[in-house]
Automatic annotation (TrEMBL):
Broad enzyme group: transferase
Keyword Metal-binding: yes
Keywords of the record: ATP-binding, Coenzyme A biosynthesis, Cytoplasm, Kinase, Metal-binding, Nucleotide-binding, Potassium, Transferase
Family matches, as InterPro entries: ATPase_NBD (IPR043129), Type_III_PanK (IPR004619)
Enzyme Commission (EC) number: 2.7.1.33
Pfam families given in the database record: Pan_kinase
Gene3D superfamilies noted in UniProt: 3.30.420.40
Gene name in the database record: coaX
Name of this protein: Type III pantothenate kinase
Cofactor note: A monovalent cation. Ammonium or potassium.
Binding sites annotated in the UniProt record for substrate: Y93, G100, L101, D102, R103, T181
C-alpha cells in the first residue's frame, strides 16, 4: 500500500492507496504528526510499502515526520521537490524553488485534467490562485489570507469578537447580513473569499475568453463553490500532482 501525505500549514491530509493505486483504502485529515501516526496504527489490514509526501512546512518539521514514518512503518519515503518544468507545465516564478510545492502540484494535477488553460484556486490556511496557459506556461498567481487566517486575525486583534466553532459552522447556513457577531464575521470573511474568486475569474476571462477550466481545492473550497458555476471541485488535486511528481517504480 502507498501512504500519501499533503502537509499544509494547518492540517495533514492523508490517504492510503492499494498498491495498484486504483482504490483508496483509508483517508483522513489530522492536526499533528502524532495524530497521523495514531490514525494509521488504528487501521486494520494496513500494509504500507511506500510513502510520498508534499510539505509546505519547514524542512526540520518535514524531516522529523519522515523519520517518524520510517521508524513506525519501515516505509520508503519520497518527498516532492520543486522543478522548473514537469508534466507539460513550466514554473513561472523568477526563482522556481520559491513557489509553494502544494501550489505546484495542484497546477500539475489541474493541467493534466484540463488539457488546456486553467485557473487553480486553493483555499487552505492561505487562499491561492494560479494561472496556467494552454501551452503549459505558468503565468504566476496570487496569495492572500484564507478563512482560518482572516477569522483568527479578527479574533486576536479585537476585544469583542469571540465565538466557538459550532457557532461558526451554524453562521454559514446563510450569507445574508449578520445579526450576531459570529454571523457578521463568518459571512464577511466568506464574502471576502468569494470576492477574491470573482476577481480571478475576470482575469482568466481577460486572458482566455471562455476557454479555460477552473479548479477548486483545499479544505474551504466548498465555501466558494457556488461562485463558480462551472468550476471543478477536486479535493484531491494536490494528490493528483503528487503522483506525477513522485512516481513509484
Ligand atoms: N475534515 C476537515 N478537517 C479539518 N479542516 C477542514 C476539514 N474540512 C474542511 N476544513 C477546513 O479547511 C481549512 C484548512 O484547509 P487545508 O486545505 O487543510 O489547509 P492547509 O493546507 O493550509 O493546512 C480550515 O479552515 C478548516 O476549517
Ligand atoms: C502559499 C502557501 C502559504 C499556501 O499554503 P497552505 O495554505 O496550503 O498551507 C504555500 O504554498 C507556501 O508557503 N508557498 C511559498 C510561497 C509562494 O508560493 O510564493
Ligand atoms: K494546502
Amino acid at each position: 500500500m502507498i501512504l500519501e501525505l499533503d502537509c499544509g500549514n494547518s492540517f495533514i491530509k492523508w490517504r492510503v492507496l492499494e498498491s495498484d493505486s486504483a482504490r483508496i483504502f483509508a483517508e483522513g485529515v489530522v492536526g499533528s504528526d502524532a495524530s497521523l501516526i495514531d490514525s494509521l496504527f488504528a487501521l486494520t489490514g494496513l500494509a504500507l510499502r511506500d510513502c510520498r509526501l508534499v510539505s509546505v512546512r519547514a524542512s526540520d518539521e518535514t524531516n522529523q515526520l519522515v523519520t517518524t514514518l520510517v521508524e513506525a512503518f519501515g516505509v520508503k519515503v519520497l518527498c516532492a521537490a520543486s522543478a522548473r518544468q514537469m508534466g507539460g507545465v513550466r514554473n513561472g516564478y523568477e526563482d522556481f524553488e520559491r513557489l509553494g510545492l502544494d501550489r505546484w502540484l495542484a497546477m500539475l494535477g489541474g493541467f493534466q485534467l484540463a488539457r488546456g488553460a486553467c485557473l487553480v484556486l486553493d483555499f487552505g490556511t492561505a487562499a491561492t490562485a494560479d494561472f496556467i496557459a494552454a501551452d503549459g506556461e505558468h503565468l504566476g498567481g496570487f496569495i492572500c489570507p484564507g478563512m482560518p487566517l482572516m477569522r483568527n486575525q479578527l479574533r486576536t486583534h479585537t476585544r469583542k469578537i469571540r465565538y466557538d466553532d459550532i457557532a461558526a459552522e451554524r453562521a454559514l447556513e446563510a450569507l445574508s447580513p449578520g445579526r450576531t457577531t459570529v454571523e457578521a464575521v463568518e459571512r464577511g470573511c466568506t464574502l471576502m473569499l468569494r470576492g477574491f474568486v470573482l476577481t480571478q475569474l475576470e482575469l482568466a476571462r481577460s486572458y482566455w475568453g471562455g476557454d479555460f477550466t477552473v479548479f477548486l481545492t483545499g479544505g474551504d473550497a466548498d465555501l466558494v463553490a457556488d461562485s463558480v458555476p462551472h468550476g471543478r471541485l477536486v479535493p484531491d488535486l494536490v494528490f493528483v500532482g503528487l503522483a506525477m511528481a513522485c512516481p513509484l517504480s
